[in-house]
Design brief:
Layout lengths: L9 E3 L14 H4 L6 H13 L2 E10 L5 E8 L5 E6 L10 H4 L8 E4 L2 E7 L6 H9 L4 E6 L6 H15 L2 E9 L2 E7 L7
Parallel strand pairs: 1-2, 6-7, 7-8
Antiparallel strand pairs: 2-3, 3-4, 5-6, 8-9
């Protein structure tokens, strides 16, 4: 699918597309350092296409052996421009909170596309994260998700709400069921006096 995006300025993948969000028993075996095979492959995809690639999130194993759900933004030259470790790990009928260590901070990065911030999935329910990104200068926020199909209406609501609240463009990519990807772009309307 990434190869089919030739000519795009930005390609966005969903949360934990490899190995799949619900592959909890495989998390420990499939986690990699940030310069592991998955990120290195994505860096080559970005170089080949000459685009920014938000590779969704990967299972990152840090230097202490902790696992994180980490979003990675790659520039057109293949450089890692930004990473974000998901702060609000999900716990309801999920093993994410049991297996993964939450991140601690949000930040934005200046790119050829403007100043971008990123969050992941369940973070959409916490508006203060988005205020923090806007305070750090984010003009656009990219959200990768593996939001369940049963609550897809909430995903759409929260993407729109965060864009309107913070007056930013919000680009969200969600793998609602394996093989089906949904993209939402929420653009706030300008305030009228």
């Amino acid at each position: 699918m990434v190869a089919d995006a030739a000519g795009a300025d930005l390609v966005v993948l969903p949360e934990l597309w490899l190995p799949g969000y619900f592959a909890f028993d495989s998390y420990a075996d499939l986690a990699e350092p940030l310069h592991g095979d998955t990120v290195e492959a994505a860096r080559e995809w970005a170089r080949r296409l000459g685009c920014h690639l938000h590779m969704g999130s990967v299972l990152e194993r840090d230097e202490l052996g902790h696992l994180h759900n980490t979003a990675v933004m790659i520039g057109p030259g293949g450089d890692i421009l930004h990473t974000y470790r998901k702060i609000h790990v999900f716990g309801y009928k999920s093993r994410e909170a049991e297996l993964l260590t939450p991140g601690e901070q949000v930040s934005a990065v200046t790119t050829g596309l403007g100043r971008l911030g990123t969050t992941t999935c369940y973070d959409l329910r916490f508006p203060e994260l988005y205020r923090g990104l806007v305070d750090d200068g984010a003009e656009t926020i990219v959200v990768c998700s593996a939001w369940p199909a049963a609550r897809l209406a909430h995903w759409r609501l929260f993407t729109s709400a965060r864009a309107v609240e913070e007056q930013v463009v919000l680009i969200a990519c969600n793998e609602v069921v394996p093989g089906l990807v949904e993209v939402e772009v929420a653009v706030p309307r300008p305030h009228r006096p």
